[in-house]
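Worked problem 6 (solution included).
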Amino acid sequence: MAALRYAALAAASGASALRGGACPVASTKKWIVDVVVGMSLCPWAAGAVAHGLRVERCAVADAVPAAIREIAAVAAAERATVALALEGDCDFRAYLAIADAVDGAIDDLGYRGVVQLATFHPAYEFGDAEDGAGHWTNRSPFPVLHLLREDDVARALAGRDEPDADAAAEAVWRRNVAVVSEVGEAAMRARVAACAVPPPGDSVAR
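Solution. The predicted structure is:
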């Protein structure tokens, strides 16, 4: 009951309140299961969860070195994947700078074509999204850096009608935009807010 009341408070207060009082790991795990997998927004997410997707808490200031440490670990093991849930003040512009640094590190370390970065943020925006709802394909309770193996992505996209992996990924994204647009921006905001999980022992008395 406390968790439900907490989610309602977060929905009413906006994304900053959600990040400020919720547990980054538990909230991100719930979002992956309830929204990403539950709405089929990612063909490889269900497999990642089934094979032990790790979600790790990480301070914003430590995000780049933490991600760099994880890149080799993800590359080394089949079906290895990790989501770093960032805790602390991190607006979308700052997040993009972090993501650019991590993506550059994939090149610097020689793992381009082996490891890729997926990006999610509470205020995520696509420049070419047709409406507000479309941005919610990549909106999460906390800023997330998701490192995954390209072989796992290719495996999940195998058998589709598109001519190559890039075309398949584009088709998945456009399908996702259609799905969340049909659900609507208000309903998507509520779904993500409902993933707020209070820290252990927090009864959220109000």
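Discussion: The two ends are 13 Å apart (CA to CA).
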